[in-house]
Amino acid sequence: MKTIAWALAALVAGSGLAQAQDVQAGFRTFLQNDIWPEARAAGVSRQTFDAAFDGVKANTKLPDLQLPGDKAKVEEVNRQAEFQSPTAYFDEAKMAATAAKGRAMLQQYAGPIKRIEARYGVPGPILVAVWGRESGYGAAKIPYDAFEVLGTKAYLARRKEMFRAELIAALQIVEDGDLTPQEMKSSWAGALGQPQFMPTKFRKLAVDFDGDGRRDIWNSVPDTLASIANYLRQSGWQPGRDWGYEASVPASVSCTLEGPDQGRPIADFAKAGVTRASGRAFPAGETRATGHLLMPAGRFGPAFIATPNFYVIKEYNNSDLYALFIGHLADRMGGAGPFSGDWRKVSGLTRGDVARLQEKLVARGYDVGRPDGLAGFKTRRSIGAVQEKAGQPATCWPTKELAASIR
C-alpha cells in the first residue's frame, strides 16, 4: 500500500511539475509571438524588450489568474480591501492615525501643495488623502517586478486585454527613457509608484513638478502629488466644490434613488427631508447644484449626498468605499470627526454568493451592471426594487436571507 501511495504522490508531483513547465514555456512563446510584434509596432526596440524580460517568469502565485484548462470564474473571496467590509475599511483607530499623519504631511509639503492647488484646482487634503491611501504617504513597499506582474496577467489573468495594453505601455515607459527595467517596481496588480498609476495612466498623466526632468512618482513627493492632481483634474474635478456630505435620509426617500445617473439639485433632496448629519444646512452655493444619493452599505450604514467630484475620485479607483475614504480622510485632516452613522455588520456573503445573487436578479430583468460579485450601486438599488415590490422595507443590501428568498 505504501508503494502505491508513494507512486501516486510521485505521479501527482510529476504532473504538477509538468504543468508548471508548460505554463513557463507557453509564457515565453506568448511573449515572443504575441507581445513582441505588438511592442515593436508601438515603437519599442528589441533591446528594451529583451532587457525588460531578462530572467522574467510567469508568477502563478499572483491573484485573479486563470491557468490553462481552468474555467473562467468570479473569485469566491474578495482580495481588495475596497470591496470588503466597510467596518474594517473605516476602522476608527486607523482612520484617526492616518488623518494625523496626513495633517503632518500637509504642513511638511505646504509650499509645493499650494502651487499644485493653484495649477490644478484640486484641494491639497484630497491629494494627500489619495497619497496616504495608495502608499501610506510613500512608506509602503512596492516590491514586484512590473514586467513579471504585467506579463503574467497579460497571459493568464481574466482581463487579459487590459493587462496586455498596460504591458505595452510599461515597455514604452522604458523606451521613452523615464525609467530602466530595474526601476519599474509595481504592486501585485501592476500599479506603479507612490500614487499607484497603471502604466497607461503614467504615460498620460504623470507630471514632472519638481523640474528635474523626470516624472518620478517613486521618489519625488511634488511629482507624486502633482500627478494625482493632474489625474483628478483631467477626470473632471470641479474646482470649488466639495466631494459630498454625510446625510440623514428618511425612510420616505427610497434607497433605490441612489446612483450617479439619478442626480438632482441638492435643494430637491432637502425638500424631501434629507438633512446633513452635522446639523448644518447644505451650503447655499450647493443647493442648486447637482447632488447624488449615496448609500454604500444600503440602509446598514451611513448615507451621503455626493457631488460629481465624488465620482471623479472613483475614476481613480472604481470603488464607493475608496472614494468615500478619500473624501472622509480629507475632511478629517481639516478637523472633522468620525462618521455620525454606524457601519452595521450584516450576515455576510462571499463575492461568489453575491455574483450568484446578481445572476438571479439579471434573470428577473434587473440591471446589476456586470455580475462580478461586487455590490455596486446598480446591484444595491435592484435589491431595493425587489424588496419594495415584495412589500418589504428596502435595505438595498445583499444578505443571506435575501439571497435565499430569491429563486
TrEMBL record:
Question: Would I find Cell membrane among this entry's keywords?
Answer: no
Q: Pfam family example for this protein?
A: SLT_2
- Drop me one GO molecular function for this one: peptidoglycan lytic transglycosylase activity
Report domain Peptidoglycan binding-like positions. Answer: 351-395
Keyword Signal attributed: yes
Keywords annotated in UniProt: Signal
The residue range of the signal peptide is: 1-20
The family database entries (SUPFAM superfamilies) matched by this protein are listed as: Lysozyme-like, PGBD-like
Single GO biological process annotation from the record: peptidoglycan catabolic process
- Give the Transglycosylase SLT domain ranges: 27-331
**Organism domain of life:** Bacteria
Q: Name the chain's protein.
A: Lytic murein transglycosylase
What is the species listed in this Swiss-Prot or TrEMBL entry? Answer: Aureimonas phyllosphaerae
